[in-house]
Amino acid sequence: MDQKKIGLFIAEIRKEKGYTQRQLAEQLGASDKAISRWETGRGMPDTSIMPQLCRVLDININELLSGERLTAEIYSGKAEEHMVNLMKSNEENRKNSRSNFVSTLCGCVLLALFIVFIGIFSMGQRSIVWFLDVPSLLIVLGIELLVLGAGGQMGYFFKSFVVLAKPEKYKKEEKDNYEYAMNMAIKTMFCGGLLAALIGVVFVLGNVRSPEVLGPNLAIAILTLFYASFFSLILLIVKGRVQRMGA
Questions:
Q1: pLDDT of 115-125, one tens digit each?
Q2: Which CATH number fits domain 3-70: 1.10.10.10, 3.20.20.70, 3.40.50.1820, 1.10.260.40?
């Protein structure tokens, strides 16, 4: 399928109907940015939205996938051609999705192992326990979930992880929503960890009773920043993979 040709065809029919990109997007429940991507050949409408798009533009699926009006003589041949192409595309997408999920998982595991290796190499094997503190971890995750929930991005944040495991649930018209949710999650993770670390440092310095416990207490106080930085890197990996799915 020629995405550029299909995009020009969508734009042509939209203009014939007298719709702006925003008006067409409102009828489809999509964003005007999604319409722009289709018309410039940088993306395709999701299969779930194609029937509705065809109804609005008064065309059929074969004409949409052909990028042109079809006569009765060539309609049947085009239908078979598109069916074969869709089957090939689905098979390729399944293979790519498995590969992407495995690559993402391997990337996260390798990142964790690399950080552990740095800790062992620079401070010794016993130093690993210094980086383990459940309350600090829960504080970071709690702030993340509270802010995402308050900002109304909780759903798309978790959907970003779901589509990595089940790419068939990915919807191109929601690409901007996935990206916004992940950007907010990354910023929230780091800012929340920094805020918690600063609160911990202030609390420790304000309650110093013995110089011997100052170092260990400060180390625990800034662990929230360590966890926030680590999870921000994980989220960047996930964000990159989700963005590639919509490319």
A1: 666 665 666 65
A2: 1.10.260.40
